[in-house]
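Lab notebook, bench 4. We co-purified these components, and the gel suggests they stay together. Before we commit to crystallization screens, I want a quick structural picture of the whole thing.
Request: model the full complex, all chains together.
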Amino acid sequence: MERVKYLLATHLNMNIFGAIMLSAIVLALTPIEIQAKSKLPKLRSSEGYVLVSYAGNFPPVYLSVATRSVFPYSEDLGEFKTNVGYRLIVLEKGEYKFSRLKLTKKAGYYYLRDNEYDFEVKAGQINYSGQLNFEYLRSNSITTSVVNRITPAYQWLTANHPELASKYSLRYTGLGSDNFMDFYNDEKESLK
Amino acid sequence: MNRFLISMVFLAHMLIATVEASEIKDFFLPEKVKLVQLNPKGDKALVKIHHDNNYLLMVLDLTTMQKQIVFYQPTKLFGHADVVDNIRQSVWVNDTTLFIVEKSPYEDQTSQLVKITTNADGTMSHQLEPIKSAYKRFLFPSIYEKGSAFVSYYNRKGGVNIERFDVKEHEYSDPLNDDLKIARRWLFDAKENLRVGWGIVEDQLHVWHRKDNDDDWDVVLKWPAGSKDTFIPAAIAEDGKKILFYTNVGRDFLALQEFDPETKKAGDIIFEHNNSEIQRVRKVRGSEAIHSVEYLRDGLNQIHYFDAKSATLSKQVSSLFPEQQARIVSANKTGSKVIVLTHNHENRGKYYLWDITKNQLMLLGSKDPKLADNADKSEITVLNVLGKDDFNIQAYLTVPKGKKNPPLIVMPHGGPIGVQDNLYFDRHSQLIVSRGYATLKVNYRGSSGFGKKFMFAGRKQWGLNIEDDIARVVDNVIDKGLVDAQRVCIFGASYGGYSALMSTIRYPEKYKCAISFAGVTDIPLMFAEDTRMKSDDYKKTMIDIVGDPIKDAEYQRNNSPVYRYKDLKTPIMLAHGDKDPVVTSEHSDRLSLMLNTAGTEHIYLQQNGASHSLAYTHFAEQFYTTFFSFLETHIPEPEQP
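Here is the predicted assembly.
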């Protein structure tokens, strides 16, 4: 309910129909953060895991992903304790992007507008969106980029969530096409 | 040399170190002396010197040899940097005034004027005068309007504005190009009027021209950007009307050609050199006459002088330093005193003051005093080898002096397109040679400097003809008995790292080991690697170089070490910085993962914080310590009988 309030507050210029639609989407898109070694939640048929990877010179106090739609649904990933790390969430299948970033409590939101922050969530797999890099400069500006670092992401996943890693395929779903993990898994099988 | 009186002046900050076996870090120290420049009168020299992780500016009075530090604003080191150079530009505006553009680590830019006064007792004092200059770059002092200079900066339209700066009043004029904001590069005529501008508009190079300051700008040429043919303005021609262009239209090598803006037609070739690329043209200051043309030949820049006096002077300079490349980098107004910079494959650079009137030569400083006395320990040879497709492949072999049958480290350069190796000082090669190995640098197809046909022949030849060119030269060196055929390894960075890995797949019997620093291992990944791929221009360039990720998928996978990991049987060392923005460390991560899966032993040095080069001493030491240990394991010194 807290999130519904937030969404309505941030879309005041939206018509009533849009607000009702959004409320419905919100109910369907409840992100679940998976702590290391915790019990795995089961995916519904329309959901996929998302391995969010980030690296910067400050732990973000706010990072959100949003759906790519006319009335975007924005999801707050919460506060982060480290400047480099991973977070595993569950999202409804669809097209998303990293949308907003905030590195200090006093700073304003930084909007990630370019298409480089786009990624797709496919159902029934672990979607890797690329590592979001950010650097807060002393000139009070932020530089950001996304880099495909799926190999260290895979290594983190197998070390921290071996059951999940063995049950679901990790696939890159960011900008461009990359099938390396499928190749790796096939080769690993063939070498057994 | 003996006809000149030679005196050696070692400035306090430029002491030559005692000669000992150089350590790895000695090859990666920041330049000790970065710049020496005479004032117009020739009685003072501005010297930029490395000091305590920063650079300072010192003025040397050439009459009294008094020294005065005129600018030193040290800032703290950040990240892994060894040095902060916050002096972006420093130029004499007149005999007693310097224009300094300072850049802080926080991207702010400020400029200052430094006024130097010579006191009654011969000492110097100075005064700093900050001036407003955000993001303005000094171009050159006006010789027609005393006390003024030209500056440039990017405007909001993406072009470059030019303004005149009044040194006395600290005031800037309105932009001189107010009616043409989109040009990014400019040509002045001899009277310092803006006459030609050019920039890219909608994928086309546009060249604008005007007859004089009151005239409107006229588009005289449009040329497709990214074309295989080059057509770029170089200078105003000697008649003051035509434009000189660097061009390879209808020819293989860049030449200097006239273009008539009235008729919009190309005219006479002003200069060309057989099988050599023109690098740049220089004009005589204050005149439309061409001073010289520089071109590249056998790994060195050669200069053709149009002016007989300059040609004679150049010959005199060369005769002073027979084993070196020597060129005049600064001169006083009358030309009676000059600063000569010398360098060769062992010498990173030494600055001399040559007082021509007095026949006096004075060493002012060395870029690399720690290595300065390391000279005369290696020999470099230019090789020309006939490759496939009748291409001449030029390569440079450096061997430790006096060492017979040395082991060989083949060092393919990065790129691969439009980059070249040369005969100039290369710290990596010199370090490796100082440890008893020979190095071989090959200008394989795709390299620049050998004509457009040769350069474009490197496209889509990753893992194929490029590596064949390299192997052909290695065979040539072995056939001549110049190196130990049983002790050959291959090492490169970026494309060179890729080439090292693919060469061992293509020629496993030839190379005993391979070292890849920041190497590409997965060609398809280059299309899904990072932010760069959102740029259509970047994507198009990449498709030109390595093919289309869909249409050429098979070629790309067949020539990617990651997908050929089973064929990598040669001992391998990988190294990669996790802050590499050019070839991300994902490339080496992947190959290491595949090699681990296959149980193939290898070394993977992950350098946290390192970027796409070994520029910082800390990373270079870390890398080369592992590198030499790896070489000693795989191509050890044979046991003495």
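Chain A has five helices and ten strands. Worth comparing against the SEC data before the next meeting. Residues 72 and 165 of chain A are 30 Å apart (CA to CA).
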